[in-house]
Design goal:
The chain is of the alpha+beta class. It contains six helices and seven strands, in the order H-E-E-H-E-H-E-E-H-E-E-H-H. Helix 3 runs antiparallel to helix 4.
Length: 196
């Protein structure tokens, strides 16, 4: 994120009235999601960014590398088409791409394909690691469930919070709604393992 801000300040200063920083803050998601109207862009910020491109409120996009922009060839081609159609200038690192030029277009397509391949390999390696951990009786990763704590990659009961879990099950067994349970937990100021 800081690289993008520095690039914009150093290279675009004075040329544009507004510079907006869009950052997914490390969140990961699929580019596409299936809906009843077909495939749509699944990443919220990317979807919003493309809406702004189509409304012609964004004229320049800077990314650290192309893998930060798109994760598959379908979305990559949509971005390529829309950037050309709406006159958006694309900067990757310190390089400006002119997607109307055959060489830049080819490099964009090659790098997009390599990034898609790397993302798929990274996903499969991550999945294999999670499966290995589960087979060894270890926690697979991510935030742990409330009422437990992660000690040396193994979930153990958090005696201070396990009572909350029992209470949640009690309320659920009594037929209380999830909203009721959420409201009660908020009144008790119960904080989830990820802090919300």
């Amino acid at each position: 994120k800081e690289l993008g801000v520095d690039f914009c300040k150093n290279n675009l200063k004075g040329r544009y009235k507004y510079i907006i920083v869009w950052s997914e803050e490390g969140k990961s998601s699929d580019d596409l999601k299936e809906t009843d109207i077909g495939d749509t862009i699944g990443r919220e910020l990317l979807s919003e960014l493309m809406l702004n491109v189509r409304e012609k409120t964004i004229k320049n996009i800077w990314v650290y590398d192309l893998s930060r922009l798109s994760r598959n060839d379908i979305v990559s081609e949509m971005l390529n088409r829309d950037f050309r159609k709406y006159g958006v200038e694309l900067y990757v690192g310190n390089t400006k791409y002119n997607l109307d030029e055959p060489m830049d277009k080819m490099i964009y397509q090659i790098l997009s394909s390599v990034n898609e391949y790397e993302n798929q390999i990274r996903f499969h390696k991550s999945l294999m690691g999670k499966r290995r951990n589960l087979n060894e009786g270890k926690w697979w990763g991510g935030s742990h469930p409330i009422g437990f704590q992660n000690v040396n990659n193994r979930l153990i009961e958090d005696t201070e919070k396990s009572g909350i879990v029992k209470l949640i099950f009690k309320w659920y067994y009594e037929g209380k709604t999830s909203k009721y349970i959420k409201d009660k937990l908020e009144l008790r100021k119960v904080i989830s393992p990820i802090g919300n």
